[in-house]
Amino acid sequence: MLDFICIYPGYPMLIGILQTGEAPDVLAPTSGDYPDMFERLLADQGLSFRTYRVLDMEFPESVNDCDGWLITGSRFGAYEDHAFIPPLEDFIREAYAKAVPMVGICFGHQIVAQALGGKVERYSGGWSVGPTEYDFDGETLRLNAWHRDQVTRKPDAAEVLACNDFCENAALVYGDRIFTVQAHPEFRSEFIDGLMKTRGKGLVPDTLMAEAGARLDQSIDDQALARRIADFFKASRTAA
């Protein structure tokens, strides 16, 4: 199992949240938007946060403006033609080159892989929805999933950290510089339920949503992954 040794000083690291999507308007008043979900997930991990709405072309001036970066999920495909995607890929490559730690979740996982030479596609096997088990290098974690796109070819620089039968590149680590996860540790089960009732209609097969709905009472290991994310941000790493 890959372990991250936390040695960062006691003051809170400033994590820049690169927001690439939004929660549905009907769910946001209860769930909060994506940055709110990550701040809630990582609330007890000794981190502070600043959000940049990169989907609206609000980018940091420098990859050094924050101590680390977190790329959110999005309803967009990494391979689609959106104005924010090319500059985001440039930002990812620069952060990687300068060893500024970065975490990517779902779309964030995919756009990092694409920016660094991997391939992202709409998966022929369909959707993964709701509580799903992943093998994290011998440790089983159950996390909420909501995706059809996948990293179908990982970059050469990436090592597979987690997988299951449906998703072979479910978590990737790029040395000590980037850590990405396909699942959504920030999504609570009630938010998945809301997605199924809003965005899922007409997209996700009814039988799959029914199966996922029957699992929503299962516990999820969101805090186990929150600790992994925080430990990664705070880990000792080689300067560029």
List its salient traits.
Rossmann fold; nine-stranded mixed sheet; single chain; 240 residues; 7 helices; globular; alpha/beta
Q: In the CATH hierarchy, what is the class?
A: Alpha Beta
| First-to-last CA distance | 25 Å
Order of helices and strands: EHHEEHEHEEEEEEEHHH
Count of distinct strands: 11
* Net shape: globular
Kindly report the average pLDDT value.
Answer: 93
**Domain module count:** 1
CATH superfamily membership, which one? Class I glutamine amidotransferase (GATase) domain
- Specify the structural class: alpha/beta
Radius of gyration: 17 Å
Strand arrangement, largest sheet? 2-1-3-4-11-10-9-6-7
Report the uncertain regions: none
Can you name the CATH architecture? 3-Layer(aba) Sandwich
Helical run tally: 7
How much helical structure, as a percent, in the residues? 25-40%
Strand content: 25-35%
Q: What is the CATH topology descriptor?
A: Rossmann fold
